[in-house]
Amino acid sequence: MPAPPQDARSRVARVVRCTPCGADAFVLELDPGEELAPVRASRFFMLRREDGTSPLVPRPFSLYRQQRGNLEFLIKAMGRGTRALVSAPAGSKVRLIGPLGNGWPTIDGDGPDWVMLAGGVGSAPFWMGIEQAQQGMDGKTPVRKQQVHLLFGAASSDLLYDFKGLAGLGVSAHAATMDGSHGHRGHVLSLLAQLQASGKVPERVRLLACGPERMLEATAHLAFERGWDAWLSMETWMGCGVGICNGCPIPTRAGGPRAGWPNVKCCVEGPVFHVREVDLARRVGAPT
Ligand SMILES: Cc1cc2nc3c(=O)[nH]c(=O)nc-3n(C[C@H](O)[C@H](O)[C@H](O)COP(=O)(O)OP(=O)(O)OC[C@H]3O[C@@H](n4cnc5c(N)ncnc54)[C@H](O)[C@@H]3O)c2cc1C
Ligand code: FES
Questions:
Q1: What is the pTM of this model?
Q2: Using H for helix, E for strand and C for coil, what is the string for 232-269?
Q3: Which fold has domain 113-282?
Q4: Whose CA is nearest to atom 14 of ligand 1?
Q5: What is the tens place of the pLDDT at every residue in 111-155?
Q6: Ligand found nearest the CA of 56
Q7: CA 266 remoteness from chain centre
Q8: What is the CATH number that goes with domain 9-100?
Q9: Which of 42, 80, 235 to mutate for ligand 1's pocket (most ligand atoms within 8 Å of CB)?
Q10: Interval between CA 78 and ligand 1 midpoint (Å)
Q11: What is the tens place of the pLDDT at every residue in 69-107?
């Protein structure tokens, strides 16, 4: 049975500040009380307030940024758990379990260009993904800035959480909004098609995607059609985050590298999966 990562710990962190970001999200900055080793982008933590305001079950969040020893999370206010976290006063205590999960694959500068597809708050794991790829991951060649194309999609411009900051990391960055209020009108995959048609993005690419279920399904479909490598950072409901509760199954793909078992556990075997590993069409009741 897959085990939780060896570097995962349960700690009590202190809220440093919680800053609004876009129309409905916040950046929650926590002081974990001790310096953590650099965390791979797209790994996550389970968070819960310690004062009884949060539901008993902690909620999972990708690490957004790790700087000055503090951990930042980009949190979209959805229900009770997220609303409790984004209203936590400075100095209050938050239970922090992690780092959990696997994180992005090695984003290197040796093969085809990378296209990062971010949908809404699915942009969270890309800030550090860009930084780490530029520094060089796992001893591999660092990416050059123009080898990475960030395509950030949202319903409207106020949901493009700090797009300016992400674009400021120097990669080729493009926005898409469904209402046309910023950038391309439409979704990120139609933006990708447009950028490829105009020669701004090469024909052969590698994809990293995080966002709503339908965006991930469409990404997987495109990757199969074109024969591209693609990795998806998946979301499921999570009860424990450490492999015990069986609350986070994702069906495996018939004939794929994980086909020996009907499901993978998103928390300990993911949240990042190659498209050949999972079958999104067979998922039931996934967050949308
Ligand atoms: C690995 C991982 C990383 C994540 N990273 C982030 C992140 O960086 N920032 C962020 O804002 N959110 C992230 N999420 C989603 C976040 O965990 C949920 O939004 C949160 O659990 C909702 O809790 P709640 O109590 O506020 O909402 P609930 O009261 O539990 O639910 C409110 C609404 O949110 C929907 N919902 C619940 N859980 C999820 C979910 N996992 N995904 C999508 N919709 C959900 C429900 O269907 C319901 O409509 C991540 C989830 C996973 C699994
Ligand atoms: S969340 Fe409990 S097993 Fe994955």
A1: 0.96
A2: EECCCCCCCCCCCCCCCEEEECCCCCCCCCCEEEHHHH
A3: Rossmann fold (3.40.50)
A4: 61
A5: 999 999 999 999 999 999 999 999 999 999 999 989 999 999 999
A6: 1
A7: 13
A8: 2.40.30.10
A9: 235
A10: 7
A11: 999 999 999 999 999 999 999 999 999 999 999 999 999
